[in-house]
Amino acid sequence: MLAIDLPDAEAQCAQLAELIRHRLRPDTVLVGIHSGGAWVARRLRELLGLNNEIGLIDVSFYRDDYGARGLHARVRPSSIPFDVEGRPLILVDDVLYTGRTTRAAINELFDYGRPASIQLAVLADRGRRQLPICADFCPWQVDLDPAQELVLSTDANGRLRWSLAEDAHA
Known about the structure:
It comes from Candidatus Accumulibacter cognatus. This protein is of the alpha/beta class.
């Protein structure tokens, strides 16, 4: 496994908030993808001083590899506590890689209604896309070996941090 210097995920959240800030509208809402995207969406809500609740989605049942990989051991319920019809949404995830998770999330969002727009915010874009999806907001682009997995987690104090792991699906 190649060793790389991993950036401070908390500092990246602050950078991401500044990238988003000038494009916010009063009716914009954040939707985080479980689990890393949900953590980042919560942090962005704080940093941006948003009063709106955030939405949380679990794309497990919308993945195109559901049959091959099976159901994730920790499926969480999706919660969209607002009307998405006609609203601008910012979909938030920790890592953008193949684009398949983003596609699954967009499919799920359309089950709730037809948003005015969907923009994508991620902490890291690791390239090697399999679908034509790109991030609108991203503070870090990194090229990793396909056998590596970039993992966002929280420490005992709730701070976000990056680590590298072997990708079990590569």
